[in-house]
Write a structure and sequence with these properties.
The protein has one domain (2-101): Double Stranded RNA Binding Domain, CATH 3.30.160.100. Helices cover 41% and strands 33% of the residues. It is built from 2 helices and 4 strands. Helix 1 (14-30) packs parallel to helix 2. The longest helix has 27 residues, at 75-101.
């Protein structure tokens, strides 16, 4: 799986990259059919401190895209929150997809 990281007003350090890659690997443990992922990290000059750090991740699946966004005053917490949101979306998608695949035919 390919992970592309973009940023605005922020330099991507090896620590940030590793933290984000570990989060995406956490998602892949539940669902391995992810084609690629793109992340966008930014720091805005918002008046509210808890909205300044933003993390967005888009997962590209076969026939579907999953998107999540999180704000926090700490970038690492924002990345953790967006990974948690995507993890819930992936579990829901996986459950629906498996239920569709395993429906019993009419007898």
């Amino acid at each position: 799986m390919n992970l592309k990281i973009n940023s605005r007003h922020l330099e991507i350090t090896p620590g940030i990259r590793m933290h984000l890659e570990n989060g995406v690997q956490k998602i892949l443990k539940h669902f391995d059919q992810v084609i690629d992922a793109s992340a966008f990290l930014m720091i805005d000059n918002a008046k509210e401190k808890n909205l300044r750090q933003t993390a967005e991740i888009t997962l590209h699946l076969k026939g579907k895209e999953l998107f999540a966004q999180a704000h926090h005053e700490d970038l690492y917490h924002a990345m953790d929150n967006v990974v948690d949101k995507l993890e819930r979306q992936v579990m829901k998608y996986k459950e629906k997809h498996q239920d569709y695949q395993h429906e019993k035919p009419f007898e």
